[in-house]
Protein 1
Amino acid sequence: MKRLLGASVPLGAALLAFMFGAIMILFLGEDPIAGLRAIIDGAFGTGDRLAATAVRATPLLLVGAGITIAFRASVINIGGEGQIIAGALLSTAVALWIPGTPKVLLIPLVILAGLVGGGIWGAIPGALKAYASVNEILSTIMLNIVAIQLMNYLLRGPMIDPIEVGTSRIPQTQRLTDNAALPTLIDGSRLHLGVPIAILAAVLVYIMLFRTPLGFRLRAVGHNPDAARAAGISVEKNIVSALGMSGALSGLAGVVLVFGSESLRLVTDGGSAGFTGSAGFNGIVAALFGGLHPLWTIPSSFLFGSLLTGATELQRALQIPNALAIALNGLIVLFVVSSDRVRAWLDRRLDKSMRPGDAA
Amino acid sequence: MEHTPLLSMHNITKTFPGVLANDDVSFDVRNGEVHTLLGENGAGKSTLMKILFGLYKPDSGEIRLRGEVASITSPTSAIEQRVGMVHQHFMLVPTLTVAENVALGLTSSRGFRTDLDVVSDRITEISEQYGLSVDPEIDVWKLSVGERQRVEIIKALYRDAELLVLDEPTAVLTPQEVADLFVILRQMTDAGTGIIFISHKLHEVLELSDRITVLRNGRVTGHTTPAETSRQQLADMMVGREVKLAPDKPHVDLGLARLRLRNLSVKGDRGTMAVVDADLDVHAGEIVGIAGVSGNGQRELAETVAGLRPAEAGSSVSIDDVDLTTATPARTRAAGLSYVPEERMKDGAVGEFQVSENLLLINHAEARFRRGPLFDFAKIRDHCQELVDQFSVKTPSLATPTSSLSGGNIQKLIMARELESKPSVILAAQPTRGVDIGAAEYIHSQLVEQRNEGVAILMISEDLDEILGLADRIAVMFEGRIVKVVDRENATKEELGLAMAGAEVDA
């Protein structure tokens, strides 16, 4: 009974959000059915579109899997954007530094660099929270801004494409050597190695959280830090490692975004959304929609990935701005978050009808 | 019966799916008496009271008020029929004054304008009549727990309650506040109020009650009076078998001092000194009980020994000659300490965790529970099942969320976990507070068994009966100091009570 509830509530929330989306399309003077068809067609219509959806879902999944670690430890990580940037910067720097390295060596090295970069960017607010009681919501958001400015500086200065120096000065690195590109899985498709890596990462996060002593400690700290501390578990260390691991996975998303891109370079438009596509925020949505369970985050990320690719087709076919997809995203968040209350209410109703009052 | 009783409940039966909560329960309350409902958690006291307040509808049976069949459909209709309740958890708005809290939910005598001055006057009247001494103008958040309880009583009296139900009213009170409460309750019964007193503290029940009804598994197992019964008999009636209120303790030769506290000074949460210059040794094979009214530094002392709270400079804590003054909880545990914290749901167990997970909270990282880096769930299940069986933790399954167990079973779970590590020192704070008699008996026997095997046990308890029944030596704490240490044989309740009240500070 309860298990059924768990799945039906977020689906109901998504359905409600889509209904609102349909109403918005109606107000724009278009046919909502055609709109929905355009989204589905855009996301799943052809093999290429399916691949594009999977590629769009990959950073969401990586960030989302990381978010489940942080949130399970009761640490709110809003710093996905900054952690993506930190991972992207460090891995790009490595690739620029040793361009000639063979692919089999270079790809693992840049992945490692991305994990380290994002991990450090996550561990900083973790340490601030653990040892100086700095609120992690504020510090992660502020570190997003720091990361964006750091990227702007590096891409306009030390890391800028030498060709741009004398010309238009577009803030971007030079195109990386081809041996740095993530290998594709099928020839001629955009489907690259990042997709299975992200799925593997989500599975590993699941195993870590629920089948290892490390995950046990993280969850204990998340549920009840007092009891964890009294039992000899270091609350501080676990907060740092939760945010560190969460950041590392976002950093990996940064690697995928750069080394899986067609332009094969890190480029900024001065903000962050240009190259991250707001994956650092949308990943939180995907994780919440997946009930903060790493395995459920996989389909959830694909759903949001399909929304993103579907919106492109919606715009092309019906001239509806793809901001609608962003609005849909927001609506789903709204309904998922409020569905927690619905779920709590349903739980209470179920309990009340099944259990007598216990203690006097 | 000479008079018509104020309340009589006849043959009340109430079933929930799979549970017979009340089975043919009958009892009555007369004007001017205290009638105690005594029973373990789940015995059916609370269901019976919820029926009285119209929250549940009985399957069969009837309620009579002042001789006439009463239909109580909601708490509001109970209040209208002059039945009042003081809940265990107070229903007060802390930011409002006493008068505002009392007036809450009542219609003003002036229509749209408030009549708080009228309310205040009436409160003053009531509190003078019963010696409640509560200022109606004071904000509730400024009041102590005992005073808040008096506000709840005033709320009921203000609504002209003739029958008052008190649900475990003494659970949150200090011994002095309990004594004050009993005086107030006596004044109320003298004025003709009938009182239903719900408790499982046997000595209080014997002290206060006129009549006692004992419930077990939803049934009445006996009606009695304090004159006809004893603590032992009441405990047996509650549990349904012979209960050992104080466990047998064989003589054990004292070993070396295992836990040593020297000049221990500790700051409390507010930055003031909570523990001052405490010196104490606990030897192998002895139970040292720390007696004292709560808030005299016991909690801070326990937390410091457990490594959770820093000690002041010059202090020293050691176990088996390993210095632990600045140790983390992990190191204290590695040195052989087991810690049963005072607040079991806050510090002792993770409520959302499964039973098996809480059993592993301390030793989850040990290699025997893993295969490679991953948990070996088969081995964990075997291990946990063994502990659950050995300590008779009643749980539907090992995967049950711990918060849904009863207090006694959670405490047994914590004991199982803490004793499993073969400790050299056990620090147990309030080990049986709020725990069923049956579970308390079991926990006591486990502590004594550990003592017999040469473990040094430091037990903190506010329950003098528990200390006298279990301890070999007794230390009394008052205002952060250990003001008295006495062997059990030479200790009397009176003397300890005086020391707890600070009478020996200058001696």
Note: The CA atoms of residues 208 and 215 of chain A lie 5 Å apart.
Protein 2
Amino acid sequence: MLIFERSRPGRRTPSQAPAGRADVAALPERFRRRRPAPLPEVSELDVVRHYTRLSQKNFSIDTHFYPLGSCTMKYNPRVCNSLAMLPGFLRRHPHAPESVSQGFLSCMFELQEMLKDVTGMQAVSLTPMAGAQGEFAGVAMIHAYHKARGDEGRTEILVPDAAHGTNPATATMCGYAVREIPTDASGDVDMEALKAAVGPATAGIMLTNPSTLGVFERRIHEIAQVVHDAGGLLYYDGANLNAILGKVRPGDMGFDVIHMNLHKTFSTPHGGGGPGAGAVGVSERLKPFLPIPVVGREGDRYRWLTERDLPQSIGRLSAFAGNAGVLLRAYVYMRLLGREGMPRVADYSTLNANYVMARLRSLGYDLAFPERRATHEFIVTLRRQAKAQGVTAMDVAKRLLDYGFHAPTTYFPLLVPECLLIEPTETESKETLDAYVEAMAKILEEAASEPETVKGAPHTQPNRRFDEVRAARELDVAWQPEAG
Amino acid sequence: MPFIPHTDTDVREMLAAIGADSIETLFDEIPAALRVDGLNAIPPAVGEMEITRLMEARAAQDVMGLNFIGAGAYEHHIPAAVWQIVTRGEFYSAYTPYQAEASQGTLQVIYEYQSMMAGLTGLPISNASLYDGASALSEAVLMAVRANRRSKSQRVLMPLTVHPAYRSVTRSIVASQGIEIVDVPFDPATGRVDPAALAVFAGEDITALVIPQPNFFGVLEEVDALTDWAHANGAQAIGVVNPVSLALLTPPGQWGQQGVDMVVGDGQPLGAPLSSGGPYFGFLCCRKEHVRQMPGRIVGRTVDADGRPGFVLTLQAREQHIRRSKATSNICTNQGLVVTAATIHMALLGPEGLERVAGACVEGCGSLVARLRARGFEIPFTDERFHEFVLRVGVDGEALLARMAAAGVLGGHALGGDYPELSDAILVCVTETKTAADLDRYVAVLEQARADLAG
């Protein structure tokens, strides 16, 4: 039932709004709305109960194992939330003078410093509001760099075929043509194809390492050399930073610019789709182009650095300074883990992934890259089951919901048929992983003995599979007062 | 180990199952030369008690005082229930609802949000959110360029009465796509888009006109005439609005003869705390014919295999994970949790509650204007406004505000940086949170600060 269907004319929650109607005679008639906005009229208890019940229809990290590949669904520590929501932080207006903002600014400055350290970059801007905006910032900086050197003929961005969809979409938004680079049989970038593709038109390459195939790109040094020799720059997509945190730094691998998904690696919540934070880090040569504002320190005072300090900046990406509340959560998380905690994230996320991979392999699941180590994630392919029993990756994903586990990422990366991308994260215990493996074992049996059960899943959720074609054809994206 | 549950026994058993000697072995594909040997700038770990003490001290350092700053981020009362529900783990720690059967809670919330935004704006299609109002305007400009197939110029008229940061962000984002953003001056008498300045462009190939309501100065623009001008000149009309004001003001879908083509704004006033500038969310609503040009996620209602109603992400062929380099935008993560807050906030206030909030803003703002006029202050521009006004202070705005802040009042936003001709003016905001006593205190602190500076 929709909140609108609980609405009764005249029902309201009077303590939430100013008492009485104000005098708005100063507002001329020609600017006024003729009919009240069609919002629901409900009581406070109606609202609390309705949205509490809706929340219970969600899978979440707090309630379920959520091994969604490339999304890093690790536990979001509660203290990060409660400290980011201290009244002093919540009440701070973004335009508050620096004289009454030193507490907040000091957290942001230290966060910049910690992110520089853990990525091996020379400077960081926290302003991008999600991974895709961080990518935009990164590619825009590459663009600004070439332009500042008068090197205008670089019109292409290279993107491996395994990349996230945001990579090519970002390159397009920055005015570049996208050139795809194939992957070789073992999951690494095809070096011959790369060498053939680079040239005077190459502005840069966008790489994720470990790649979305769940393996570490072993020839990263050689890739960096080939691209740099051609005059291009290297962009690091930080989606998979969890796997190498404190072990290898993108700056040391030769990357010129990176974005970090703080909502993945640094455990800020995903919130049902956001908000995230996509901080960017740069090498020395891209420093002048960082998006503003950045926090600077002079003596023991902190201040915003703006156009005046960074005249070559690619500019502003948000009305203020990005998703400050998310950044505070990441700051608390990094302080709790400390320098010794960073490599442990990589250690245990890698241990968990390799453990689940080994167990699934022994059950008879096919691995996309059986000869490779898993990083923090790995790929199972159900090509064989799809052919033999008609049971697809989607069917297995939906059946997992019945067993109380969120599905892994399905059908991504696009180049592995019928794939499941599985990322357990470091915060899950062996017991949880064992229970998940057991569910995967049962599903494999069911695929052989009762495939219809798997194909018809889920059976225990509030809904069965949806008619997505109808959703797109008979578009219903808003409740209509007349129809409701 | 914080947040890592493994015992030594677990690790031994897991390594045995893998067939590896140590965790270190699992990293043997990484070239040894690349390995980092310790981190220096990150301090050693602290416990929850220590970090709590530290953060409480830092939060306490930033004493805001009485806040009259608006300029795109507005202080409103947020009912206690909003963030108590939003931070339930089931909303807080869920992912993007790609697995619809396991995400009906989030999906229904977004559908209800889209419905509420459609109701407020008078345009039938809303997406599931963008990052903030500024990035939403950039996306709307890109969308208008795609949607206006008759226009070849890629010229977008941008009044100087649009929030300066929105203009600046839009320039950053559309810079490399060959789109020309053309400034349109305002009339210094009214603070509105200057009709004569707009008339210069009549008959030219213009792709879109941006129309703020209220504008950055708090002034109400002649939106009907502007919308009709855009359409008469073959341009798309893009509204930029404050969502709370829409409880009182004409919905953009009804501006002029046909209504705007798309409308954007920042959703912060609907339940998001000021929080140093974010997370907020951007909203974007459009006419039905533009739906396939819409960036970002959209939730649709459909039925399942048993005919039961439910919700899914729909029209995904517009998005980057399907269309890659041909997507309508690169956006993936949006501001879902803040949208959840806004939905609950709007449900709690209802049509009358939101109207009372908007009305109290208008009345409070008028009341402060009257007090200041009575004390001889100059308030330029028209008096037809929502909840902000420009105040001439006769001295440097920045300097005055620093004085006021020292006296515990954040007196407004200095305008000189963005409008050099207004360097002796500040932008002041009054919301429903301010009492008559607050307004009196404002006037007293302002007069004292001005006297100190003048003396």
Note: Residues 162 and 413 of chain A are 6 Å apart (CA to CA).
